[in-house]
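Troubleshooting log. The previous structure file for this entry was overwritten by mistake, so regenerating from the original sequence record. Sequence copied from the archived sheet and checked twice against the printout by T.R.
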Amino acid sequence: MASNAGYVQVLLQEPERSEILGLLVQAHIEMPKYPLHCTVMYDERPMDYPLCTVNPLKVYEATIQNVEVLGDGLVFHLISPSLVEEHQRLKDRGYQSSYSAYLPHMSMTYKFDKYDTLKADFLFASWAGRKLTFSEEQFGDK
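Regenerated output below.
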């Protein structure tokens, strides 16, 4: 049975994780169904094992660009040379990204409406340019 070895993620670290979750709760925006994370690679091919190692202790910094709807998620778009480098490293090791371009982002929720989007825009308006820290790289649970 194939695993999800084609999915690699890094988890948002404290104190930003608690701060973001607290603001979502205050605004009555549905909590995310997954831990707050940034996908580094999504290769949808079935894989029985990872194609390379990951470094769970490495720290990745990202800068928030804006809040936006992306696909089925309400996300922070991120700027992160270190995440882009890690994505490329995984591609160099044989992963094939399921998307034509890598867009670093962190989904805040997947169940939202236009009012949630407006609330998130207001809540996080001053967060553009703020740094987020990710670590605990892992072959994910998606």
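The radius of gyration is 15 Å. Archived copy saved in two places this time.
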